[in-house]
Amino acid sequence: MAGSFAEFRRRTFSSIMFGLCAAGSALIISILLLVIGYLAWIGVSSLSWEFLAAVPTGDVANPGGMRHAIDGTIILVGLASAVGVPLGVLAGIYLSEYPSEYAATGPLRFIADVLTGVPSIVVGILGYELVVVPVSRWTDSAVSFSGYAGAAALAFIMIPIVARTTEEMLRLVPQSYREGSLALGATRAQTIFRVVLPGAFGGVATGIMLAMGRIAGETAPLLFTALGSRLLTHNPAEPFPSLTLQIYTYATGPYPEQKRLAWAGILVLLAMLFVVNLSIRLIAARHARTRVGT
Amino acid sequence: MPVSPLMTQPPTSAKPQPEPPQVELPARKRPIASVGPANASGGQYPVIDAIKRGETPEPRRHESVMGVPSILEVRDFQLWYGQNKALHGVTMPIAEGKITSIIGPSGCGKSTLLRSVNRLNDLVDGVRTAGSISLKGEDVYARGVDVISLRKRLGMVFQKPNPFPMSIFENVVYALRISGERRKSVLEAACEKALRQAALWDEVKDRLKSSAMGMSGGQQQRLCIARAIVCEPQVLLLDEPCSALDPIATLRIEELILEIGQRYTVLIVTHNMQQAARVSDFTAFMYLGRLVEYGRTADIFQLPRLRETEDYVTGRFG
Amino acid sequence: MNSAAPASPAASQPGWSRESGGQNRSGSGETGVSRRARIGDAVLGWACRLSAALIALMLVSLIVVLVHSAWPAIRQFGLGFLVSSDWRANEIERPLRDAAGKLVLRDGEPVMETLAPSFGALPVIWGTAVSSALALLIAVPISLSAAIFLVRVAPKLRIAGAASFLIEFLAAVPSLAFGIWALFVLAPFFQNHVGPVLQRVFEPIPGLRWMFYETVTVAGRTVERPIPLTGRDLFTGSLILAIMILPIVTSVSRDVLKAVPRTQIEGTLALGATWWQSCVAMLRYGRSGLLGAIMLGLARAAGETMAVTMVIGNNNQISPSPFAPAQTMASVLANEFGEATEGLHRASLLYVALILLTMSLVFNVVARRLVVGKVGGVSH
Fold it and tell me: How many CB pairs under 8 A join B and C?
């Protein structure tokens, strides 16, 4: 019977495609496990207390540690967040809570979306042209790479992300909260700070943490702004070290001992990101508990 | 206590109110679109038919309601959402210290009217108004009115309970906090008083610090009432406060409204006619943005002047 | 606030404007607290407006600065930059040759010609286009099948949450980590194991010789020579790009497919469709959103820098072979911008950055237009 043969073929094909779909998912997850597993495996064997505590020695056979780079990344992310988080959150509040100014919010939302798609290397070049070059000219010095320039580039990446996630999270807050608060005679600022933002706290915090994780892992924007440094410095006015820059330098360099440090550095970076991700989940879970019933 | 000025003049003369200058009058009165045939009811309901034709017939306001001292005066109030006119020259006084309910089929503008009193409609884009609503003689739509202070004088409870995502205590004292009150003793006293008045104190006194989101729907709604009365508002606006609740919770809220009505002026919007009959002193019947009949609750339900009202409250129309 | 009210001129709104602008007429409510609250309202409003305006300023400054700094190159090369494959940072002096490739001699001495510095973006545009296309070719089938699995199968197995989390985590892994893995693991593996096997399998096939041999002109003669399979080439670059765009394409596709109404799937199943046929119906229903997901992946691939820079070989040439080293727009910027001191060289790199920016903006805008409305979600 031709009909039933066609039916058989149809079903077999379906089963094959089902298998392929399952295989696709399995492939993605095994790639992840492969990459992360490999990084962790080599990284752990390269990791030492010296790595975390020591600074570069200048000796390629015994290159020391990455204390300077870890500090550098923390300071860079801190500086960028100190600027980027308030500006991003305020911009997000504007996009969500001022709907009557839609003539401005519509285009601004679009621009923020567009900015999240700017390649990070282009942001680095902008930082060079907009911060490093003018500062060099004003101070009449040689090229003024600095931690501030690096932090500015990272903040540039951070602001649109924080603005858009904040907006999305504030939109999830039921309109009835706002009406209830306003009906009690609260001003808009009081409504936003006492009801809307607390109601979206978990989501906004998650967005901020994600953005911080993202910029902590960025290398390209720092190449021509912070430049990197082998010195332990806490002065952002100087060329500034970062974990990513140091890893990149070591990984692409010729010395095996430095390559080992690059592996360990990647592991530390991933561990930092994992902690961030874990905190996100904890915040989100706590947040979900306080919002039971909405 | 101001007596309604409407009482001294025939209702028709309420029309040419001095317009607040900033409120833009519509260029023309648009008849509402998609009205049925001119005599959809076969002549049975002449007032409703006129309304469906886009006219605004003079409502039947009973002398009994026009004679009482009023706290809130709605005068020829009109409201547009963009191009759609939602309220067509509503004129009604709200009796002080009494419970007044507004009934009518959905889309009749009763909630819109309620939200106009504390200017919550300002939040909606493209809303325009004309006419006036005055609270104790002050026009709430006049230029320069402090909407924030206005809203502090008017409590409001919404259809769906909307406790904020914070503790029970913080919910109740929210209105005090935003007014800058920080003294713990004052806040605690006010919280207890409001919760007692909302008949919630005994149920929650041991868990004031726990989240309000964990309460039952009926408790949440009583919490919202407590939150609304903590500042002792001049008028309490209730927007279908029981529509999201089960019958038992509804009953408790109704008892609460009756009790609160002894202390406060209450304006309640409801689609439940029995509820209006049970809790209110005065009842207004609205249809398609117009006031149709307004009088004592007993009169509206037992001796209505219009056939339309009688058939609506008995469930034969609407 | 999601008010869906129709548009109307802001002037006719009796809304917030009056609250913020008016002074109190009645005088009854204006307390110190109320005034302070009002000032707080105004301060917040302006802080928000300025922060939002900063976002617009950021885009404007990005475009203005790049155009301004790239101007010398734009003026000199114009649109010809896009189709030129020159990349000479320094002046070059070399013996002049005639059309036949013979040295031109005068008095027994070769005549020298001088080539001025000149730049063209064709090799990097080629490298970006081919590596992104290859990456999509590899990633899209895997991503779509995984998305189908996540939407149609995983929820029944109660592993949707875990699988989604893993994929989101993959998206959060920095580019540098993939780069190091590709440099230290993928490239050597390719060089030692995959490359030779591929060569043995494909080289004998007629018509595929171009994959493993390149023709070069040396001293005026055209010779064919084998391409060394180092593992640092276009193919490895594409492979790591594919791995890096898997998470974004998968998670956006999953969101798009999730938004397909159940009735669509149930409708086809009720008509006797097999599992796969109902999946096809689902894919068809969400096709514009899926296209958007692919465009987002393309934008990501085109702008990706670090991992590609580490394995693509960094050679400004156009070669048909996927096993030849290449260069992308992003990698040429990472490699050369730091040492480009000479004016025209730097301006040319900025010109490349401008092209890269324009390209990724276009991809992003199109992609978002396609995805918007299909998924109610956070920006990716």
Answer: 92
